[in-house]
Fold:
Amino acid sequence: MAASRGSERLRRDLSTIHRAALRAADPERILEGDLRGDAVSGWTFRGRPLLPPARAAGEPVFLFGAGKAAAALARGVRRGLAGEAVRGRIIVKHGHRLEVPGVVVEEAGHPVPDVHSVAATRRLLADLRAAGGSGRVLVLLTGGASALLVAPAAGITLEDKSRVSSLLLACGADIHEINTVRKHLSAVKGGGLIPLLPPGRAAALVISDVIGDQLTSIGSGPATGDPTTFGDALGVLERFALAERVPAAVLGRFRDGAAGRVPETPDAPGETVPHHIVASNFHSLRAAGEEASRLGYRTEIFGRDLAGEVHETARRFAHRLAVLGSEPAPSALLAGGELTLRVTGDGRGGRSQEFALVAAGHLEGVPGVALLAAGTDGTDGPTNAAGAFADGASWSRARRRGLDPEATLRNNDSWSLFHETGDLLVTGPTGTNVMDLMVGLTAGGETAVSAESGQAQLP
Structure:
């Protein structure tokens, strides 16, 4: 059945709101407006000192970093530092490479590190050591850096780290818990870069993809002190019943560290190297609300820095959207954050697509409502989609195509269902990464049914 004109308008508006949110977190656009200075007077970002003046004509600025949006961030810095000699090395996810004059951009594995992650990191560290005190350094970090900037600690192999990453991603651990473990398996995370950075002549530019913009978790904090301990990392494994499933070398290292036989990560306070947050979910969520208002919707924030489990949060979001749908005024329900999804099946999908499918089931039969759940980086889980659209007829459309939404959820196969129904949002790499956005819209009017009458029982 073709979508109604009202549904088509809601979907167009959802896309427009999502694009506005991405623009607000575009590092090239932000740096063009907020990076000021020159090689003689030094550089500032949003009025705060960023880099000191050059000590001699032609002294380079080195860009070193990693993340899915790191190349876009580097390109923005390169363009902003007009007249400076820029060099460096950046590591991005496969498929996210951009040309940055003077900077080597390498691709590696994400969300699970691969041999390219290790090799590229080895070259980055060699370049950073070679740079020594010969220039100023900007560390560039965005979401994904933890899997891309990879130097296993002594006695730990890439296979060990990959196994642990896969287990953590599937068990429902949040990003802070995942990165607590990662930092204690690494020679570079948790402050590992600090000894290689020139004192007073280095800073970090960051696109935040973590709840609360915690610097120690963004990219696993390679240029900040680490407040977590081996005991904390061991606690994460025990909390998710992973202690007996991780490689023996990992468990042994954590137990030795907790007993004081392995040195802890540096625990100096977080801003040993000055960090500047270029963009975060806050910026995108605010822009989404402004665009929704411009389009004529009354806006309501469901949650900022939203955490929690995908299914439960999607149910609550859908319930509130259905309530708003019973009111006469068109409304926009907005949320941003990073939820956790426990993977028990072997299908394709990600947390945003699963959020959309769960919410659609709870909205089944409710007219005049639609939602979009999507990542801001352009990829949701190991798929080519950023997220998915859903409405009160999504499950019905799927069933007419011979699909079973409940079985799909049990197998974590939301991508396959939305691919079949044509409801995926595919953007490609966006050049930013500020967690996820969930936007729900209601058409308003008297045709909406009550929240209770539209609820479906979910597995």
